[in-house]
Amino acid sequence: MKRLLLLAGAGEARAVAQGLADVGAAAVASLEGSARFLSGLALPTRHGGFGGAAGFERYLDEQEIAAVLDVTHPFAEEISARTAASCAARGLPYALLWRPAWQPDVGDDWVALENEAAAAAHIPAGSTVFVATGRRGLAGFANLRNCEVIARRIAEAAPEPFPFAGGRYLASVAPFSVAEEEALFRQLGVDWLVVKNAGGEGARPKLHAARNLGLKVGMIARPAPPEGVTLLATVEEALDWARAHG
């Protein structure tokens, strides 16, 4: 039976999965290991990677996938590029949920960064830096000069050493309100907040807290989406596309 494949990784994937389940769509979800917060989707779900492009293409063929809806994280550029290329090679419909990026507002003090390593050109030595970019890219901040670098990790995650000297993890349990983020930033003496411009609502409390406290924000630009693919801005658009191609 032909099915739609939902690649889940962004927060919107939960609502998309629920919407597909509500209408009885023939669909299956795939959840990468780092997106544990999305466990319990309303669709049959496979967990883990595919084993590269060859493994992914084998899965498409064996499972008779008719279309792929990509709702992975905006910074999962390798996954999206591979998926778009594999679908194009097979003539399969492919669409990417591409939520709008954040834009600075009155009172924001943002510095645009190309990547993690670029932060060192802007953050003065001796600063306390709260990094909210995820653990995978932390090593890119190793060139910060004599800074205290603090990164949040999920409280349930197994403890692990920070990737470089001068940094530490802060175990926390989400979600966090603006007031909670403000109190935390004051307690830690944060001078800079560094985030990825993923858009969406998840990190907004941090940005509002930084604005209220007058903190500098290093905003890492998101990668461009694969060229020529269908981009969808909302859950509603994603569900409409899925219904048309399921």
UniProtKB/TrEMBL annotation:
Single GO term (MF): precorrin-6A reductase activity
Ranges annotated as spanning the membrane: none
Alphabetized UniProt keyword annotations: Cobalamin biosynthesis, Oxidoreductase
Pfam families tied to this protein: CbiJ
Record GO biological process: cobalamin biosynthetic process
The protein's name: Precorrin-6A/cobalt-precorrin-6A reductase
Transferase among keywords: no
Metabolic or biological pathway, per its Swiss-Prot or TrEMBL entry: Cofactor biosynthesis; adenosylcobalamin biosynthesis
Species for this entry: Lentibacter algarum
InterPro entries given in the database record: Precorrin-6x_reduct (IPR003723)
Organism superkingdom: Bacteria
